Amino acid sequence: MTRKSGILLHISSLPSRYGIGRMGKEAYAFVDFLKKSETAYWQILPLSPTSYGDSPYQSFSVYAGNPYFIDFELLEAQGLLTHEDYASMLWQRSADKIDYELLYRSNITVLRRAYARFREKPLRGYSTFRNANRAWLPSYALYMALKAEHDGAPWYEWETPLAMRDKKAIAEAEKRLDEEIGLYCFIQFIFSRQWHDLKAYANRNGVQIIGDMPIYVAYDSADVWVSPELFALDAEKKPVAVAGCPPDPFSPTGQLWGNPLYDWAYHKKTGYRWWIDRLRHAAGLYDVVRIDHFRGFESYYTIPYGSPDAVKGKWRKGPDKHLFLAAKKELGELHIIAEDLGFITPAVRKMLAALGYPGMKVLQFGFDSDPQNEHLPHNFTSPHCVCYTGTHDNETLQGWVEAADKKTIRYAKQYLRCKRAQIPDAIVAACWQSTAELAVAQMQDFLHEDRTGRMNTPSVLGGNWQYRTNASDFTPALAKEIRKLNRTYGRAAAPAETSVPVRPARKTKTAKTEETT
Questions:
Q1: Catalytic: 393?
Q2: pLDDT band for position 461 (cuts 50, 70, 90)
Q3: Is 114 helix (H, G, I), strand (E, B) or coil?
């Protein structure tokens, strides 16, 4: 990889009049902004449908796409919606934050209206899509239909025959919920088309997508419900132990994530088939895959199920490099960024070195007054890494400066040779100056957002994943400023193919179902 730069901004944070960022004109406009700023990478968070807590890292499926991101104007242009179907509904109480409660109520209502028209006149390519995704789509659609029937309750609270997937109970449910199952298949078809159209536009314009893959899956997910043998569960499909992180100076009781752990012995026995399929799917969605909590493949922290915190736990050996060597043998070279933050041991470093994936450096972690801190640019031992100003789990740079203690600020000013008010911009410049092959900043840091612009505060339930931008944020002046930064430090993207911007067309009386396979 030659020297390049990226901007981290999730789809949900894009501007929109309909409650949350979507894959329509504002997403295409952001690609245009990246192109003008000569930024080569757009990094996003997982595209999966969110569940309780609204986190993209706790999803109903590792394969499905988030229906909140489906753009209604594009559906209107295809004749599947009228403007009145969605424009008159209440989508937000504030333009600055996502209201997930409103989305939960309204989004599915609009998609049902689109599905009703789709059933009258299906789009071409639907059968091909269903067949290509038959390994996961029917069971996911049934799972979602059953969740709707049970008022959103998790699968482990359903009647025992359904929870345990009794054949007769499943057959009856498939017959009873046939129309609802069709709805959820349709939603995934539309999501897939809109996402791949957007990604193709980005690629044509010289922008590559970095997507995020959580290492673990949610307990309440189609993945666990359908394939319990993949996980460390007992005979009643309850977790034996769950995932998390041990206590550290920042979290005295550790982090209790609650995700079921993998039965790695089973995965090894199957040649890591489930993981290889998952990586293949991710490679089709993104140009580069950032894998969250990568150290968990070397060894992972186990917490007894039912524990109130993560204090009592222990480390167990994971599959290490062998999973990825098996995947490489079948899929070829994988473009992966390893999130190697947290408790990193020599064994983890050995695994990363053997695989050759770039790890991460986060500048916010560097200013603890220790000149040997590995997150300071002068300590980068190799350019084969990704330097971040901060991640989605960190404060914005402005918020970090506001919250940091005097000692940290003193060292930051000394290291960056600037005044306190200049620290955020100086950290961005230090990131771009670094020897790292890829430099990435949150969009919030270019917009000088304070702590109210923070995307997520780990281990805090509520108030997360709500950050939004406005169309007026992406000015020509800001694009020029970022372009200058890229050119100054040798990170400017090469000129891309000139493309006519794709925008939702107005629906006409002769709108056709022109989708192709």
A1: yes
A2: confident
A3: helix
